Automatic annotation (TrEMBL):
Keywords: Hydrolase. Coiled coil: none annotated. Its cofactor is Mg(2+). This is NUDIX domain-containing protein. Gene3D superfamilies: Nucleoside Triphosphate Pyrophosphohydrolase. Residues 10-139 form the Nudix hydrolase domain. PANTHER family: GDP-MANNOSE MANNOSYL HYDROLASE, MUTT_NUDIX FAMILY PROTEIN. GO terms for molecular function: hydrolase activity. SUPFAM superfamilies: Nudix.
């Protein structure tokens, strides 16, 4: 007799950064699932043996062609989707741009980007972005 119970998925590790300048948040528009056509914080996935901080810096450089400095850890996002059988854990940092101007460098993954006032964000937002914004709103001194 075989067990037909699906395997329990292992959590995967992502990363992201909240980059805020002059009261505006840098967001990217996702092309790919999950959450295609949702606006979200720039970031991505860790490679094996890569630190979360290095992955965040690398992913944002690859996506947007900018060099960032991480200034603090904003929050840890848990995104659990039992229907899809996925669980993502993603540290989200506060960061500043050191060099470069944002531009789409991965058009297969991102459709657009922009700076948005924290009081007038586009919709829909990714789950990770909503969780990070909840932390920013709960602790406004983290801006």
């Amino acid at each position: 007799m075989t067990d037909s119970t699906p395997p329990i998925p292992q959590p995967r590790v992502g990363c992201g950064a909240a980059i805020i300048e002059d009261g505006k948040l840098l967001l990217v528009l996702r092309r790919k699932d999950p959450e295609a056509q949702h606006w979200g914080l720039p970031g991505g996935k860790l490679d094996p043996y890569e630190t979360v901080a290095n992955a965040t810096i690398r992913e944002i450089a690859e996506e947007l062609g900018i060099t960032i400095t991480l200034t603090s850890l904003l929050c840890i996002v848990d995104q659990i989707d039992r229907a899809r059988g996925t669980h993502w854990v993603a540290p989200v940092f506060r960061a500043t741009i050191q060099t470069g101007t944002p531009a789409i460098h991965e058009p297969h993954a991102l459709a657009d980007w922009g700076w948005f006032p924290l009081t007038a964000l586009p919709t829909p937002l990714t789950e990770a972005t909503r969780q990070a914004l909840a932390m920013l709103n709960a602790f406004p001194n983290r801006l």
